[in-house]
Specification:
The protein is mostly beta strands. The protein is 9% helix and 41% strand. The mean pLDDT is 93. Strand 2 and strand 3 form a beta hairpin. It contains one helix and five strands. Strands 1-2-3-5-4 form a five-stranded mixed β-barrel. It starts with a strand and ends in an 11-residue tail after the last strand. It has one domain: EutN/Ccml (OB fold (Dihydrolipoamide Acetyltransferase, E2P), Beta Barrel).
Length: 93
């Protein structure tokens, strides 16, 4: 699972029919403290995320295809949750 922050929407005039009526979002990758790591993903939105939302993603094709219930989908990355909080134990727990 990967953490990210939604930065924008990706539009395409020519694409595989699977992507018709699906939103693609540009997501900056972050560490557990929400610091940007310099990478990004373009992911299908399955949770109605918006710009600025902190999200949880899967970047592994088979897992993503299971979520959309389509074994043949040309899909790798999908947003599966909006993150409210990340708890990082400080060792005193």
């Amino acid at each position: 699972m990967i953490l990210g922050i939604v930065k924008g929407t990706v539009y395409s005039t020519i694409n595989h029919p699977f992507y018709d009526h699906r939103r693609l979002l540009l997501v900056d990758l972050v560490d557990p403290r929400w610091n940007e790591t310099g990478g990004y993903l373009i992911a299908i939105d399955s949770v109605d995320a918006g710009i600025g939302d902190r999200v949880l993603m899967i970047d592994e094709g088979n897992s993503a295809r299971q979520i959309v219930d389509d074994a043949g989908a040309p899909l790798r990355s999908i947003i599966i949750g909006i993150v409210d909080e990340v708890h990082i134990p400080d060792g005193s727990d």
